[in-house]
């Protein structure tokens, strides 16, 4: 079969149908299901609002992934679709053809349109795209509430016009339409607004929460009860939640408020906390509340105590981690064995390890080498911004040479490249680099490593020395 296929009959049919809006609308009831996606796309791009409105009322699929077509919010289109939904919701009995239960405004529905627009149609028989997946006795039951899925970014002081319009629409149809957010992102929105917006949401729809507010712990306290109701959250990211240096008791209260809600998150797999200064000395409280094994844990750019790290290495629910990121957590003064215990624990599952800027030294690296060499799933290892001698780096290269999945290796320049004042001396770096290359060659497996002056993996070539032994 050639790649260049002539226009499909379906598309030609859709184009021709769209020429006569009134006729098309009157015949929707009799058109084959396969025509609906093409027709919808045609009406969408041609801004045929009346057709859109009518298509919604006869939509033969459970989901209308409108977000997959809209590059950016388009209010008139949304309005046409909502008008169509209004007609539907006003009816006691669903029209014969219509299966619509979910309006998906997330930017994730492209597959549906791609599949139905032909090119890759053979690829999938995914059930979400099958026309009929429901089997309820539709004609007898009243309509189940319609779900409107959106991705919500609470970034500004106010919501945009598009969302305000949508939220108001849903609000006025309480009981027959629900707003659902799979992903909730809150960036610097006033507390009151957060509460107001979230009060209109089915909290148990939310699977991903990102709270990035550069806020105080008390805001987290306000947010906590809501978090506990988001019982299906799988991914939680908190950035820049700060402890205030005073009011220790109050602080503790907020932490308890927050961690006690973590107890309710039975689907949490992925926990990222960037600069969580409130965690220092309290990590055990958080870990004790985990009820599921995590896949991904990131605690970055903060201070932890040795006791925090001890608790981490003993926590049963981190033993299946695929990704561990402790970048920017200073571990210099901690016993090297702690890191070793932690790594041993996750060795069979770990795929990504980031220990950038942990200021770890030779003894730490030496302590973890045996465990590291058993991380057979490891794909990415980044330990830039630490201080290792070339001798220990040689050991490191030896211990990682058997890790066949390892594709990304980011190391710091050896300690010997610096003067006693901590200035990088290129005339020292170059021979050391050659030495490392020689070691790699002797190890006999072709691989690339990056030697970085900075912790950043993809910093410009001026800062990264990309080593690739030709074997
Ligand atoms: C579908 O409907 C039929 C007949 O009403 C019933 O026997 C069957 O169990 C239903 N299947 C599902 C998956 O609900
Ligand atoms: C958090 O917000 C700050 C600005 O407010 C931004 O620079 C940073 O990239 C955001 N972080 C995340 C993880 O979204
Ligand atoms: C860890 O997860 C298990 C389920 O895998 C759970 O039973 C246990 O209570 C969790 N928490 C701790 C602190 O072990
Ligand atoms: C680890 O966390 C830091 C800081 O949040 C981030 O910049 C880095 O990309 C993360 N590393 C990985 C491997 O995701």
From TrEMBL:
The answer, when asked if Cytoplasm is one of the entry's keywords, is no
Q: What is the similarity comment for this entry? A: Belongs to the PRAME family.
Q: Write the record's keywords in alphabetical order, separated by commas.
A: Leucine-rich repeat, Repeat
Asked if the Swiss-Prot or TrEMBL record annotates the protein with the keyword Repeat, the reply is: yes
PANTHER family cross-referenced by the UniProt entry: PRAME FAMILY MEMBER 11-RELATED (PTHR14224:SF19), SIMILAR TO PREFERENTIALLY EXPRESSED ANTIGEN IN MELANOMA-LIKE 3 (PTHR14224)
Organism encoding this protein: Camelus ferus (Wild bactrian camel)
- Any one annotated GO CC term: cytoplasm
Lineage of producing organism: Eukaryota, Metazoa, Chordata, Craniata, Vertebrata
Q: What protein does this entry describe?
A: PRAME family member 8
Give any single GO term for biological process. negative regulation of apoptotic process
List the InterPro entries hit by this protein, alphabetically. Answer: LRR_dom_sf, LRRC14/PRAME, PRAME
